[in-house]
Write a structure and sequence with these properties.
Strand content: 15-25%
Structural class: alpha/beta
Shape: globular
Strand order of the largest sheet: 8-7-9-10-20-19-17-14
Helix content: 25-40%
Distance between the termini: 22 Å
Mean pLDDT: 84
Radius of gyration: 33 Å
Low-confidence stretches: 31-42, 460-469
Largest sheet: 8 strands, mixed
Length: 498
């Protein structure tokens, strides 16, 4: 009878061991990948900081991360990096999108080309694009010594400088970094903010909007304006970072002007594009008067051939390089083109707390002419201002001090596609950078933008990473056999002792 029980006991024990191994394997696969995936390369790219994990864990709204990948398998290192975010919150989801099979997908977000491997982070409020080319940068000691500080080069910049200084750069240390965590965590912070200041463009009777090309320029700079009919409002939206009035064909109503002036006096910014036809708009002029600026009669011309494009009214004005926005565009070689401009005058003295600055102006040969005849000057020859800006100190009812900004371009035709092409669309960049200059202090900057970048210049082992197979393998190949061996040895020693 005992001989019969021995095979049965052995069968039962074997079956139990097999079931235990299967159960352990199944359970191992259910362990969160934070505990089952290990970086054995020495590269920090896959890791995210505790600050990121704590922030992501606190997200309480659904967010989708779209991974734009075309004609290639997803990058394993990037997969592990993104998985850290997904594991930290049930509100995050990841979708891979192939532009080849979904050609219309990107059109919802941008008209420009995005790099392979880019991310789009979208919540119910807004979205942000993280281009793959922005996730990496290079630091080279030779370049650093030349500029006097640590210069972070994009891949395109690195290639450009390497073509010029290949020998010197190759002899110096080059380090490649991955700053995906700072960008992705900042993007998540951005799309979950309850309020982000943004531009609004006035619509309704007598208001025009941006051309498609100009709108794309604004959109690519994350400055696309939202339409607003002020005639239907009693105040501006709380998130209004700047108000744009573009090529008005009729004057503001008193209601619109009063709301706009109240907004400005509370620290708001105002971007105006107008022309000679608007010089008689009294309500609009009352808004401009807050900044000590007013329209002049007639059209500005310049007889100096260096400052016009074939005809005196097709102005190519002087650019004030001391202004940040003008210098940023002018330094790239773009000319400003201001055809059929109205003049802008400054009051003397300026209103208290107001400072003004000329942005674009004619030479000393400039003057104004009537619409009836170019031979009838409205003023003697002198420099005429065709773009200007103002800064006004403001104080809210609670005593909070702020600054209001206004930028005025006095040529409507300058911002039509037909004339902008003549200046390689430089006019559009001057307008966009002026808007950015006004709203820069209100633009959202995430506290996570300073998260450390990962050094990718560490030697990498073959087989970039391991996965949960490591855990399963350790369990079934090492831990379980050792446990059985220990159990068997204990039983043997116990029996031998008898």
């Amino acid at each position: 009878m005992k001989s019969f029980h021995k095979p049965v006991r052995a069968f039962v024990i074997s079956a139990a061991v097999l079931c235990a191994a299967i159960l352990i394997s199944v359970l191992a696969y259910q362990i969160p990948s934070d505990f089952t995936r290990f970086d054995v390369t020495g590269v920090e790219m896959h890791k995210v900081s505790r600050d990121t994990k704590n922030f992501v864990a606190g997200i309480d709204e659904d967010i989708t991360i779209y991974w734009i990948y075309e004609n290639e398998l997803p990058n394993e290192s990037m997969s592990m990096f993104l998985l850290n975010y997904l594991n930290a919150s049930d509100h995050l989801s990841l979708r891979s999108v192939n532009p080849s099979t979904s050609p219309d997908f990107l059109k919802k977000y941008t008209s420009r080309t995005v790099s392979n491997g880019s991310l789009i982070v979208e919540s119910g409020r807004r979205y942000q694009i993280i281009d793959a080319s922005d996730m990496y940068y290079y630091v080279n000691e030779f370049i650093n010594s030349g500029v006097g500080y640590t210069y972070e080069m994009t891949e395109a910049e690195y290639t450009y400088y390497h073509n010029l200084y290949s020998t010197d750069m190759d002899q110096a240390a080059t380090t490649r970094y991955f700053k995906g965590e700072a960008l992705l965590t900042s993007a998540l912070d951005y799309v979950t903010q309850p309020l982000i200041p943004r531009p609004y463009i006035l619509t309704g009777e007598g208001k025009q909007t941006l051309s498609k090309t100009l709108h794309e320029v604004f959109s690519n700079a994350d400055l696309a304006p939202t339409e607003l009919d002020l005639g239907k409002e009693t105040t501006f939206p709380e998130d209004a970072g700047c108000i744009i009035l573009f090529s008005p064909t009729s004057d503001l109503t008193e209601h619109e002007a009063d709301i706009l002036k109240a907004y400005i006096k509370n620290g708001g910014s105002f971007l105006l594009v107008s022309g000679p036809a608007s010089s008689g708009f009294e309500n609009l002029a009352s808004v401009c008067a807050l900044f000590g600026m007013s329209p002049t009669d007639g059209m500005v011309v310049d007889t100096n051939t260096s400052y016009h494009n074939g005809e005196a009214h097709l102005l190519v004005p002087l650019i004030n390089s001391n202004h940040a926005a003008m210098n940023a565009v002018g330094s790239m070689g773009y000319l400003a083109y201001m055809p059929e401009s109205m003049g802008i005058a400054f009051t003397d003295p300026l209103p208290s707390g107001v400072e003004t600055q000329v942005l674009l102006g004619t030479s000393e040969s400039g003057y104004r002419v009537s619409e009836d005849s170019a031979k009838t000057p409205l003023c003697s020859a002198s420099a005429q201002f065709v773009a200007a800006c103002g800064i006004m100190e403001t104080e809210a009812g609670d005593g909070t001090k702020d600054q209001a900004y206004m930028t005025w371009f006095a040529s409507e035709k300058a911002f039509t596609d037909e004339y902008a092409k003549a200046a390689s669309h430089g006019n559009y960049y001057y307008l966009m950078m002026s808007l950015r200059w006004m709203v820069e202090d209100e633009r959202f900057t995430s506290i996570y933008s300073t998260l450390s970048a990962a050094n990718l210049s560490v030697p990498v082992l073959d087989g970039v990473t391991t996965t949960s197979a490591i855990v399963v393998g350790l369990m079934t190949v090492v831990v379980l056999p050792l446990a059985l061996l220990g159990t068997g040895l204990g039983i043997w020693l116990k029996r031998r002792g008898r």
